[in-house]
Amino acid sequence: MTPPRITSPGSRLLLALIALPIVGGWSSGCDDDDVVASYSWDLPSHFPEPAVPDDNPMSEEKVELGRHLFYDTLLSANETFSCASCHLQSLAFTDGLARSAGETGDIHPRSSMSLANVAYTATLTWANPLIVELEAQAQGPLFGEDPVELGVTSFEDMLLPRFADSPIYPDLFAAAFPSESEPINLPNMLRAIASFQRTLISGNAPYDRYVNGDATALTEEEVRGMNLFFSERLECFHCHGGFNFSNSVNHANVIAAEVTFHNTGLYNLDGNGAYPPNNTGVFSVTGNPADMGRFRAPTLRNIEVTAPYMHDGSIATLREVIHHYAEGGRTISEGPNAGVGSESPLKDSLVPGFIIEESEIDDLIAFLRSLTDTEFLTDPRFASPFE
Questions:
Q1: Is 383 contained in some domain?
Q2: What's the CA gap between 308 and 112, in Å, rounded?
């Protein structure tokens, strides 16, 4: 995989650190030609092919194993939690919470990100420019201790026997990794989960049908909202553009993915742009003051069902989000997070504020709702195999 180009100021020093090792140490992985040739992408006509690591080629069998693992509580220490506990299909693989909770009740400082089109995302968390492959990202929920999510860290020796003793998993692992004599191992679990996640493609919303030639797919209100969204007056499309409505995109056709983060003036605790200490964005990785409060612009696909909004779920509705951007930053009048976000010296230049009528907000919200792909939210290919 070509290293991404980091455009967040002060973060270029991280390029040498991009290639994170995946726990467990293993060889280059499955290179069986039959496995490589066995997978065909089912993509919307206006979508490029996702980028796939050379050491984890796609296969139907690997995707099916990953689907089982994604939904299986065997993957958590106390067998009560799964990846799907924080990523519900009906909510575009978010969880509807402002901040997600792990198996022990630990509260995450950030909200659960949508997995819709995660195969196209250049970085895989809200604010870590180092995590650029799904195989590496999955280690965080499994082994993280602050907060605990799946809580595997102290129970690693118990994990593999659970799957080896299962009536279904020996066959699933053998089919997914046919060239390996002992395929039930942690690296293969990560590969399979990542393969399943790469299939979570959402591209059949009314907006998609409209751009593909169906002039009746959008209402007059939605078209007016679309024109506002793509206007220079509002500038929404600068951070939420392209086929995935995000400016942090990677796919098989790019030479180098562009990794971009933004400070939107959500907080300004000290008048100098400070964010709450447990949620400082890219700054928590780089230590560079210029990276304070910088977070990734998420996809707007299925945004209607992924409330509450922002990295910490601190804005409840789409209307409130639009008001935040119209004001050029959020004003918090009292409490520990009091401050005037529009006056933050670290705020992105793409968040200058704008004038908008309430009727125009209605139109804009109607357009954003046209990005809801109901087929994706109910597609049985992405649903639990245990139900």
A1: no
A2: 10
Q: Which amino acid belongs to residue 220?
A: E
Residues 194 and 104 occupy one common structural domain: yes
pLDDT at position 187, please? 96
Q: 183 and 210: one domain?
A: no
H or E element: which one contains 332? Answer: strand 331-332
**Same domain for 228 and 355?**
yes
Which residue range(s) make up the domain with 154? 5-202
In order, the DSSP letters of 86-125 are S-BGGGTSB-S-SS-B-TTSPBPSSPPPP-TTGGGBSSSS
Distance between CA atoms of residues 352 and 337, nearest Å: 21
Which CATH number do you get for residue 62? 1.10.760.10
- Give alpha helix (H) positions in 177-317: 186-198, 206-211, 220-229, 236-239, 283-286
Number of separate domains in the chain: 2
CA distance 332 to 338: 5
Q: pLDDT tens digit string along 123-178? A: 999 999 999 999 999 999 999 998 999 999 877 788 999 999 999 999 999 999 99
* Domain co-membership, 19 together with 113: yes
Specify if 385 maps to a domain: no
Crossing angle of helices 186-198 and 156-164, rounded to 10°? 70
Q: What tokens were used for 226?
A: 């679309």
Confidence bin at 285 (pLDDT 50/70/90): very high
- DSSP 3-state assignment of 29? coil
